[in-house]
Amino acid sequence: MRRHRPLSWILLLLLVLLAACNKQKEAPGTPGGGSPEDATRESLALLREGKFDLFWKHALPPADFATLRADWPLRNAAQGPIAPEDRAKFEAGVKRLTEPDAEKKLFADLRPALLRFNRDYKDQMPLLSGVGQSMALTAIDQAKDLTLSQKRQLREIVNVVAPWTQTVDWADQAKAKAAIGVLVDTARKTGLSTPEALHAMSFEQSMATWSIAWTGLRRLLDVYGVSIDKSFESVSIDTLESNGGSAHVKITYTVLDKPIQTDATLVLLDGRWYDSDLLQRVRDEHARLVPPAPAASAPAPPSTTAPPPPRNPGAPVAAARTR
């Protein structure tokens, strides 16, 4: 079974961290935005609320949104066959999280580890944190699916989060009980029992599951004193450059009260602004899932038939102009 790339999920959550509470200037779900700032702010606000279906509708031109929905079953099918050991692990994990009295059973299993950590490893947290920080930075540097800007942003966040991990009492049993309660509640709400059910989800079902998982993550971070809302409320968006059909915006926000900056390039299509990188990724994925048919040609011997010219899925985005 093909596994989802963790860094892709991290990027999605980073986008969520940028969401703001600012009043929207047009109805949620309307594609694009009237200005680069509006388009960015509205996308982030939808992500903050966990409205992932409306986010995609807003963040993509109508034709690309329709393509994304149509491609969704193909994305699930592309995960490949599920190995028996992966299925067994998934089902066992879900069972442990959803069975009666799961909270009590999981805490009983975890409590000895908490006591052992408090006795043997608490004083080594600076070392453990440093090792984790180094591993995370190496993974970011080696990631081939991240832009330079995304890598820079992830490095800054890792360098903020790593020192914070040294201040948390990870052996706190009350917090552990609360965290287990959140995990169990979230697992039960998803209603999943098998990996096949996960892969068989429609677009709408997947977005609803993402929303449940996002709500659970926010609650889990709250247990350990991390307020996502503070990051939301700190967001500021400024246009650095705008040249007709494209614009470059800077986004500033805080993580654990430390300022983080990132940037995005938007393109103007049919009077609406869209994130260029996001649009390109969706189109590239469609080209991978649905390769173009070979161009028709006059009959010729197989040995002399020329191959079709390579497709450039980035051309529609690169060719964006003011409408």
Description:
The chain is an alpha+beta fold. The protein has one domain. The chain contains 14 helices and four strands. The protein has helices at residues 6-17, 36-48, 52-59, 62-77, 84-98, 102-120, 125-142, 148-165, 173-190, 195-199, 203-223, 228-233, 276-289, 315-318, and strands at residues 236-243, 246-255, 258-269, 272-275. A four-stranded antiparallel β-sheet has the order 1-2-3-4, sandwiched between helices. A hairpin with a 2-residue loop joins strand 1 (236-243) and strand 2. Helix 4 (62-77) packs across helix 13, helix 6 (102-120) packs antiparallel against helix 9 and helix 9 (173-190) packs antiparallel against helix 11 (203-223). The longest helix is centred in the middle third of the chain and has 21 residues, at 203-223. The two termini are 44 Å apart. Mean pLDDT is 82; it is low at 1-30, 303-316 and 318-323.
List keywords for this structure.
alpha+beta, four-stranded antiparallel β-sheet, disordered C terminus, 14 helices, 323 residues, 11% strand
| Major beta-sheet overview | 4 strands, antiparallel
Strand percentage: 5-15%
Radius of gyration: 23 Å
Distance from N terminus to C terminus (CA atoms, Å) equals: 44 Å
What would you call the shape?
globular
Number of helices: 14
Helix content: 55-70%
Main β-sheet, spatial strand arrangement: 1-2-3-4
Element order: H for helix, E for strand: HHHHHHHHHHHHEEEEHH
Query: How would you state the average pLDDT, rounded?
Result: 82
**Contiguous uncertain segments of 5+ residues:** 1-30, 303-316, 318-323
Briefly note the structural class of the backbone. Answer: alpha+beta
Number of strands: 4
